[in-house]
């Protein structure tokens, strides 16, 4: 059970080191007055620190190295 989890953590950690975040567009209502609605697209971003990816990567390597080989 440790082995697949370790591999998953390594992949996630490497991805987090390569991509430090992402952006997405959300449509928000500005005015909602009965039948009249005005909305605008707002760009939001989600970022994480690079050391978080390193922690995932190191944790995955530790899990993978301590797993028993069958």
UniProtKB/TrEMBL annotation:
<keyword id="KW-0812">Transmembrane</keyword>
<protein>
    <recommendedName>
        <fullName>DUF3185 domain-containing protein</fullName>
    </recommendedName>
</protein>
<keyword id="KW-1133">Transmembrane helix</keyword>
<keyword id="KW-0472">Membrane</keyword>
<feature type="transmembrane region" description="Helical">
    <location>
        <begin position="48"/>
        <end position="66"/>
    </location>
</feature>
<feature type="transmembrane region" description="Helical">
    <location>
        <begin position="7"/>
        <end position="25"/>
    </location>
</feature>
């Amino acid at each position: 059970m440790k082995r697949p989890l370790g591999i998953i953590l390594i992949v996630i950690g490497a991805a987090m080191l390569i991509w430090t975040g992402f952006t997405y567009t959300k449509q928000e209502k500005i005015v909602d007055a009965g039948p009249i609605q005005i909305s605008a697209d707002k760009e939001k971003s989600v970022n994480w620190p690079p050391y978080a990816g390193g922690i995932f990567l190191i944790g995955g390597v530790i899990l993978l190295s301590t797993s028993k080989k069958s």
